[in-house]
Amino acid sequence: MFLVDIWNMIEAFRENGLNSLESTAEVNHQRLESLLATVFLHLNKRLPTAAQINADQSTNQMFNWLVSAYDGYEFSQNNLFHIAYVCKIW
After folding, report:
1. Which is it for the CA torsion 62, 22, 26, 41, positive or negative?
2. 3-state helix, strand, coil in the chain (%, to 5)
3. Among 1, 36, 78, 90, which lies 20 to 30 A Cα-Cα from 43?
4. What is the model's pTM?
5. Domain 6-89 classified CATH 1.10.238.10?
């Protein structure tokens, strides 16, 4: 995860149209998974071929981790502010 920097996150949020939403907006699981897929696909574009990661596996693992972190609260959607915060400390 140390390979993902703030610029990758900003680019992924913009590409998925999340930068224009209010911070209190709810983001469904499909959109969250799309955001994570964008992050890892863009990361692979920046890495040399020998250092590339499995983007699908990384997306699934991160998505499952985020969903399990929220599972105790039984959310079907996640607050955009919470997602942005987790991505910043990630």
Report:
1. negative
2. 65, 5, 30
3. 78
4. 0.81
5. yes
